[in-house]
Amino acid sequence: MEKLLRLSRILSGVGTSAIDIAKIIFYLQPQILILTIPMAMLLSVLLTYGRMNTDNEMIILRGSGMSFRTISVPVVYLGIICFVLSLSMSFYLGPKGGTFLRTKVSEILTTRAPMTIEEGIFNTAFKDIVILVKEKPSPDSLSGIFIVDERKKEEHRIIVAKEGHIVPQHESLAFSLSNGHIYITKKDIFTDIAFGKYHFKLNPSVESAERKNSELTPLELLAASRQFPDRKTQFLLEFHRRLSMPAICLIIILLGPSLSLMAGKSGRLGGLTIGLSVFAIYYTFLLYGENLVRSGRLPHLVGAWMTFVILGLFSLLIFEKVNKK
C-alpha cells in the first residue's frame, strides 16, 4: 500500500489516466499476494474453526469419534492449494509483475512528464532533477532553460541554456539543449563548461533503471549471487525469502486449527487478533534474522530459515498438544 500511494502521488502529477492507475494496481498484485495469501489462509482457518468451536460443533465432532487430525484435513487441502498458488506468485508472477510495473511507470512518465513542464514553474517530476523554463513556445520546444541535476550526490550540476527541444526515447527522456553552460561543483572544485549543443538524458522513473531484486526469478537470483560476490548476501536472502514465504502455508496447516481451539470462544475478533499477532511476530523475527545475516553474525541459510523452523516446531508442538486432549 505504501508503494501504491507513493506511485499514485507521483503519477497524479503528470495527469495519469484511471486506466493506467488500474494497470499499476494490477501489476502490484502478485508481489502483494506473496504476503497476503498466507495471512488470508490463517485468518480464514481461525475464523472458521473458531466459529465451529463457539457453536460447540468441535465438541460434537470429537464426541462422535473424529480425531482432531481428521477434523483438520480440510486445512491440509487448503494449505497445499495456497502453497502452490503463493509459490507461483513468488517464482514467476511476482517478478513478471515487477518488470511490467517498472516498464509501465517509465512509459507513463516518458510520454506524460513533458506535458507537466510549464512556463515559470519548478518541475520536480523527475527524481533528483529540478527544471525551470522561461517560455514554452510549443509542447516540445523550450527557451530560457534552468536545470539542477543532483543525481550524483558528490557532484552537483546546474545547466542553463537559451533554448532546447524535448526528445522522447525508449524508457527515457532527453533534452537537446543549445547555447548554454554547465556549472559543476565537486567538493572544492568548480567547473564551467560552455556548449553549443548538449544532449541531456535522464530516466524519468520513481525506480532505478536497474532491475530490482523483486523482479528477478529465483534462478536469476542465484546467478546474480555468483556474478556479483559483493552483493551475494542480499541476492541469497531474497532467494530464500521466495521459498520461505509460500512455505508458511504448510505451517498454517498445523498452526491454524490449533490456535482456533486454544483461543476458546473468543469469537471473530479473537481470531483476527491472534492471526495478525502471529504474522507481526513472524515478520519481526524474519527481518531480525536477515539483519543478523547482513551484519555477518549468522550464515545466510540460518538467518533466512531460523524463524520458519522455530514457528514450525512451535506449530507441531501445539498441534500434538491439542490432538491429545
From TrEMBL:
Record has Nucleus as a keyword: no
Localization: Cell membrane
Membrane disposition: Multi-pass membrane protein
Recorded GO CC terms: ATP-binding cassette (ABC) transporter complex
This protein's UniProt keywords: Cell membrane, Membrane, Transmembrane, Transmembrane helix
Name of this chain's protein: Permease YjgP/YjgQ family protein
TM region(s), chain numbering: 32-50, 71-93, 243-262, 269-288, 300-319
InterPro entries named among the record's database cross-references: LptG/LptF_permease
GO biological process terms held by the UniProt record: lipopolysaccharide transport
Superkingdom of source: Bacteria
